Amino acid sequence: MANRTVAVIVGSLAKNSVSGRVANALMSMQTKGIDWQRVDIAALPLYNYDLETATPPQAWTDFRDAIRAADGVLFVTPEYNRGPPGAMKNAIDVGSRPWGKAVWNGKPAGVVSTSPSNLGGYGANHILRQNISYFTMPVLLQPEMYVGGADKAVGADGEPAEHVREYWGKYLQALAEWVERHAAYAKAA
Question: Which domains does the chain have, with CATH numbers?
């Protein structure tokens, strides 16, 4: 299996967020077949059609170029009020334009949701899946990954806690195979 670049988008903007720590721990697992690239969304101006000119905001252009260059996408989102945060939705909107040139089309994707609660961000996970269902993104359906007790899933050293390593490894291997399976489709889209 060839190494594929997977863009990681974290929905929380907080510097030491649980979702950010989970994303970093996932990337630290050195998954065979994946080269991780974290794509920051903190600097993205809110999507406004009036700014979609011949020279859109540079942050939009940089973001779109980063996603376009990736072979797949891993969304890691916290749950805010039973859904993903506005920053995540804004990133999806920015990547969906200009009309007919969405950077999401064809990109295989995975969705990981995090929460300190036992539900693991179930609502955010499914609303995010609904948000991206418009695009021709093949989304990994199984295994699903809801990280309940996410505040305890990553150790002080930034590594995945022992009790999550096996499952996270299975999820990441499934994601690597998913991205590989859909790589030709992603490039054609």
Answer: 13-178 (3.40.50.360)
